[in-house]
Amino acid sequence: MSVVDGVRSPRRDRTLRLVAPVAVGLLGLAVWQLLVGVVGVSAYLLPSPSEIAAEWTANAGPIAEAAWITGVNAVLGLLVGSAVGVALAAVAARLRWIDQMLAPVVAGLAVVPIVALAPVLNSMFGADSEIGRRTIAAIASFVPVFLNTLRGLRQTTPLHRDLMRSYAATGSQTLRTLTLPTAAPYVLTGLRVASSLAVISALVAEYFGGPRGGLGAFISTSAATSAYARAWAYVGASIVLGLGLYLVTVALERLVTRLLTGGAR
User: Fold this and answer.
1) Tell me, what DSSP letter sits at residue 209?
2) From its phi and psi, is residue 126 left (phi > 0), alpha (psi between -120 and 50) or beta?
3) Whether 210 contacts 127, CB under 8 Å
4) What is the pLDDT of residues 96-137, one digit of tens each?
């Protein structure tokens, strides 16, 4: 559709948002193939996209199984970490002393190195347990969800609450029409950030012991045996997994926003 009065149509904007990333990705793959095939970059530094695609096809079963293991760990960690983060943020928003008590704990969790924590948790829970990896994903998810939820819950000012009381609004009505619509964007933003962190944390945790399986473990093993194209195939699966979980949270954000907007009318 054409541009009217200097404003692009919504349909054209949606098309550009879809086409532009795909075009950039295809261009990047073309440059990548050119560097390896024409310039002569060594395979151990950067395998060609065609070699990676061949390894992905040849190992589709193991890659899918490893992606499932990592995905389950990431999703469970995301769910647990987000639930704890929202619950504690709700308490901290009501009780200032709880907030002051949690502040140093959250700050410490935000900077704890996964590479140091993963071996400790894997040793604590045993070599055959996935709990250590899921705990790491939960910790990584907890921090952004807690901080964003706490900020969102504090966006309702005393003036807003007094106004709801003046209208004799019940607690549930205040929650539905004021607190939730105000805090929801912040909560969902924290969840969107946490979705990527959960996948990254689960992957890194798989490098440091625990049961055999998961994308991180196979990336490490493939690189150690000089199967670089196969290692990159597992990296590609990790990217797909992370993007998939991210898109799920984006869709959830749109759904919840639509429901809250409709409920407020």
Assistant:
1) S
2) left
3) yes
4) 888 888 888 888 888 888 778 888 888 888 777 888 889 999
